[in-house]
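Protocol step 4 of 6: structure prediction from sequence.
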Amino acid sequence: MTYCTQSDLETLCGESELIQLTNPDDPGATTIDAGQVEWAIAAAEARINRYIGPFLPLSNVPADFKQIACDFARYFLYRNSPTEHVRQQYEDGIAYLEKVAAGKIPIGPDNAGNTAEPDDAGVAIIAQPSVFSDLDY
């Protein structure tokens, strides 16, 4: 499932910024390197899916996820030197996804008005009883 497209990124960043970000070694570049955009979008989608795995597959991409995917892709295109604004957008997206993963923010609704519920096939962590008690010194 695609959360954002190159067109979405162009709307967010502007064509000139994307040209610069996708051609870091060519200051005279005049076109967007679509391969770099695809890489950044794939990395953004993978990062989002890490948080919402139990909710996949989604029947519809919520608008929030589209924005987060664009912010993440932009952050990844900046590589090691994002601006403060771009870094903050990325961190805000992570915080949002952590709340989604914790069930504090529901996913959806989709076009039919349904919200996503986590799949029960997720990971279960079962702890063994403690071997030592507070009284054991």
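Step 5 (inspection) to follow. The mean pLDDT is 85.
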